[in-house]
């Protein structure tokens, strides 16, 4: 693989595309942007570009060398250490552009080189001819949540009685810090109407980055859980699809014993998300575990192209 990431136009503008992750058709799922040839774009300018694009995540690709992609992710307000849905968009866009080899009938694996580490990503071709991307993520560490549930319920527009007392409220700490907050049913989770500025302040006070609300009551009978993920503390009011959040929730279900393995030591957990905000998404998480300890956890799906073109990398005011 050559050491380049695309072609600038005659003005020096950079190749740019936007994809929707975790959906098989455009205009659903979670939007992620990809900017190529970004090695000379300084960090401050990346922040401005990501804010201008306005997607929940923008990936800036600095280099592609063999099976390694040097990349950095930003939301509209901060750098992200990792981004599940952004990775779906990134890998799919690079395959579409011919900058990563098409998977054919096999399975290919690449490494994302990130500012604070690396991540392994595998991709393959589905029966429908789509590129499905599966990202290895860090298994979460789960601890009891020490917070004011009555205050949080009020900020979400919920009642404390909407939260089952038979399921623990846990904090999942991995690449992000998620509050795993169960609800009784679709009616309870559908009524949530957060006060986002106050919820963001609550999250910051309690060291939480996303409030991952979920119920085992689903619309699609094939889904294992229904998710709404509120992330105002990291710049997204409600995420249409979040890989890292779903990995944390899948691990929660396994640890608490709420979903059986598909075979000894192996779990496949399918989630639906984004329905309440008109961006339906499907996220798959695969878990390998032994004696209750997660050895490997992968999350992924497919992404669909929305637009492509070029973006001006020069100073914005």
**Could you give the order of the helices and strands?**
EEHEEEHEEEEHEEHHEEEHEEE
For the sheet with most strands, the description reads: 8 strands, mixed, barrel
Radius of gyration: 19 Å
Count every beta strand, where a strand is a DSSP E run of 2 or more residues. Answer: 17
Residue-averaged pLDDT: 93
Please indicate the percent range of residues in DSSP E strands (runs of 2 or more).
Answer: 35-45%
Broad structural category = alpha+beta
Topology (elements, then pairings):
Layout (H helix, E strand, L loop, with lengths): L13 E8 L8 E6 L7 H11 L3 E9 L2 E7 L4 E2 L3 H13 L10 E8 L2 E9 L5 E6 L4 E4 L4 H8 L13 E4 L3 E6 L3 H5 L5 H11 L3 E6 L9 E7 L4 E4 L3 H14 L9 E8 L7 E10 L2 E19 L6
Parallel strand pairs: 2-3, 4-6, 11-12, 13-15
Antiparallel strand pairs: 1-2, 1-17, 3-4, 4-5, 6-7, 7-8, 8-17, 9-10, 10-11, 12-13, 13-14, 15-16, 16-17
Distinctive features:
single chain; 317 residues; 20% helix; globular; eight-stranded mixed beta barrel; 17 strands
Sum this structure up briefly.
The protein is α+β, with helices and mostly antiparallel strands and 317 residues long. It has helices at 43-53, 84-96, 149-156, 186-190, 196-206, 243-256; strands at residues 14-21, 30-35, 57-65, 68-74, 79-80, 107-114, 117-125, 131-136, 141-144, 170-173, 177-182, 210-215, 225-231, 236-239, 266-273, 281-290, 293-311.
Question: What this model shows, in words?
Answer:
By secondary structure, the protein is α+β, with helices and mostly antiparallel strands. The protein contains six helices and 17 strands. Helix content is 20%, strand content 39%. The chain has an eight-stranded mixed β-barrel with strand order 1-2-3-4-6-7-8-17. It is globular and about 60 Å long. The mean pLDDT is 93.
């Amino acid at each position: 693989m050559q050491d380049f990431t695309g072609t600038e136009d005659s003005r020096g503008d950079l190749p740019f595309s936007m994809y929707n992750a975790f959906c098989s058709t455009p205009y659903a799922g979670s939007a992620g942007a990809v900017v190529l040839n970004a090695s000379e774009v300084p960090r401050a300018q990346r922040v401005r570009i990501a804010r201008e694009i306005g997607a929940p995540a923008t990936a800036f690709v600095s280099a592609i060398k063999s099976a390694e992609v040097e990349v950095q992710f930003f939301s509209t307000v901060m750098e992200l250490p990792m981004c599940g849905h952004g990775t779906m968009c990134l890998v799919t866009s690079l395959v579409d552009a011919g900058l990563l080899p098409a998977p054919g009938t096999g399975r290919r694996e690449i490494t994302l080189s990130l500012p604070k580490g690396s991540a392994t990503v595998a991709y393959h071709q589905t029966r429908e001819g789509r590129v499905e991307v599966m990202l290895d993520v860090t298994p979460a560490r789960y601890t009891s949540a020490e917070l004011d549930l009555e205050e949080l319920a009020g900020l979400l527009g919920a009642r404390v009685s909407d939260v089952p007392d038979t399921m623990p409220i846990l904090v999942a700490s991995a690449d992000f810090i998620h509050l795993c907050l169960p609800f009784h049913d679709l009616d309870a989770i559908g009524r949530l109407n957060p006060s986002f500025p106050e919820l963001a302040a609550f999250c910051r006070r309690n060291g939480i980055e996303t409030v991952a609300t979920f119920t085992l009551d689903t619309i699609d009978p094939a889904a294992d859980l229904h998710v709404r993920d509120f992330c105002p503390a990291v710049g997204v009011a409600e995420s249409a699809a979040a890989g890292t959040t779903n990995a944390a929730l899948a691990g929660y279900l396994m640890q608490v014993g709420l979903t059986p393995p598909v075979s000894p030591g192996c779990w496949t957990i399918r989630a639906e998300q984004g329905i309440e905000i008109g961006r339906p998404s499907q996220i798959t998480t695969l878990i390998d575990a032994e004696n209750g300890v997660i050895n490997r956890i992968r999350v992924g799906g497919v992404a669909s192209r929305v637009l492509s073109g070029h973006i001006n990398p020069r100073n914005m005011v």
